[in-house]
Amino acid sequence: MEPKRIREGYLVKRGSMFNTWKPMWVVLLEDGIEFYKKKSDNSPKGMIPLKGSTLTSPCQDFGKRMFVFKITTTKQQDHFFQAAFLEERDAWVRDIKKAIKCIEGGQKFARKSTRRSIRLPETTDLGALYLSMKDTEKGVKELNLEKDKKIFNHCFTGNCVIDWLVSNKSVRNRQEGLVIASSLLNEGYLQPAGDLSKNAVDGTAENPFLDNPDAFYYFGEDPLGTIRLRGCVVTSVESNPDGKKSEEENLFEIITADEVHYFLQAATPKERTEWIKAIQAAFRTGK
């Protein structure tokens, strides 16, 4: 039986022989990570076994590169991957850690609270509910929240989600709201932000979704997004590995689903980060 595919998408990988970073189509399986030169390739360029491996995140071995994580195999081989933004890196790290833990415990990888396990009614349309929640006038209000001296932009609290589900008559009570919210979280419509909500997803809490004012969440990728942006990846590009200033600084790359590469340049590092986040936000909302 083929290993289950847990997560896949573009990441930037550091070469094993030379200090070069190239976009790769990465596939996380139950027992390892395969990476391909292109999404359309049939054979992987390499495979990283997860059994006995350790994961380091954040990895600060490369000062100029943000959102990097490292996987070290039992043979002490290091593999470095770079995500486009913080939430993307955290999602990969969360699933890889869980896959390693499942291997150690002899268990099968399974996300908590799937439609079958939580007995979600078949008539529940999570996609329609998600769109209602995102309605700018009648949906869940996105706020800039602060906790432990950190600012979380465009987020909302767990109890606000349950409040909205109850007041909108989408559920009969808060317990039923937890079931629906957990399913929205499991299907990727909602994403955790902050340690409390992320730890719950990792399995340290009884329920993956928390009806808690200190648990923060944000809207995930819109599955009804436009075709032009679907499958794209955006990442920063190191223009000069030597650290010397040049005219090609602050570059970032967009790779479309058709394998077309676009290199763009921002005026400052801050502006580049803002562009990457804005493009990723547009990708997530399908605009």
From TrEMBL:
The keyword Nucleus does not apply. It comes from the Eukaryota. Residues 136-221 form the DEP domain. GO terms for cellular component: plasma membrane. Residues 4-101, 183-284 form the PH domain. It holds the Pfam family DEP. This is Pleckstrin.
